[in-house]
Write a structure and sequence with these properties.
This protein is an alpha/beta fold. It has 6 helices and 3 strands, in the order αβααβααβα.
């Protein structure tokens, strides 16, 4: 059997790129680097809880935003259904883009239905290599 893709999941507690938990470095410079190519770093932000996480300002959360080349704003349907929901999503998106203006942003819905098509065109596995230097030099 030949693996064509590895999708590691780092929970909200994981640092994507620092010395304490170098997930990105494992694929760029670690033992796995000789067998793999890091294609993309995707961060999933819960639209319901994202504002509170930003307010908390934990290094783990901020690093996950900063090191991502793709950010998925998830569960937007749950926020949009509330009064002022779109405004709240726009404010959250602005703040995420302030932290990482280089990332690609997409919105996804939790529930199936008309809005679930937002996720249909996502390209989570990029055809290019992840460029840590581009993010660090910004």
């Amino acid at each position: 059997m030949r693996l064509t893709c590895i999708l590691p999941y780092v929970s909200h507690l994981g640092h994507p790129g620092n010395r304490q938990n170098p997930v990105i470095q494992t694929f760029l410079r670690g033992d796995a680097a000789q067998f793999t190519q890091l294609s993309s770093v995707v961060t999933l932000v819960d639209a319901m809880h994202g504002p509170a996480r930003l307010e908390e300002g934990t290094p783990e959360f901020l690093d996950q935003i900063a090191y991502a080349d793709q950010i998925l704003l998830n569960k937007v349907d749950l926020v949009e259904s509330k009064a002022e929901g779109r405004k709240a999503l726009d404010e959250l998106s602005r703040e995420l883009r302030r932290i990482n203006p280089l990332a690609r942003f997409s919105e996804t819905a939790l529930h199936e239905g008309e809005d679930s098509s937002r996720a249909a065109n996502l390209e989570l596995i990029d055809d290019g290599a992840y460029d840590l230097q581009r993010l660090v030099s910004y």
